[in-house]
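--- STAGE predict ---
source: upstream dedup step, 1 unique chain passed
mode: sequence only
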Amino acid sequence: MSFTFTKIERLCSKKAIDDLFAHGKSKTQFPFKLIYKPSEFESPFPVRTMFVVPKKKHKRANKRNDIKRRMREVYRLNKHILYDVLKSNKLDLMFICLSNEELEYAVIEKSMLQLMTDLSKKDFTEI
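--- STAGE serialize ---
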């Protein structure tokens, strides 16, 4: 498996993001909240992902960008957890940072891995 995170794997469409907020389910593992929803997009990848660090929590852009960069790196290295389970299902995901402090890589990795493993155990035919 390739450890890349290409443009096709990113959730960018405003319509898809609005739909995710309106109809998605969520799971929280502090310091992150995961919003997910089954999707019908055409792509060779089973998951589209977005990372959010609110300006309300982190005022400085460089801090927000640093946290998002760490989140993307954790996802890029561990996305195979989801890809192995989701053969025919398609998902839209959004990871939202809830913490006011700048997060270390180890904290981000532990929380995101917990969220991704919990999500991989779900049965998406019921959603």
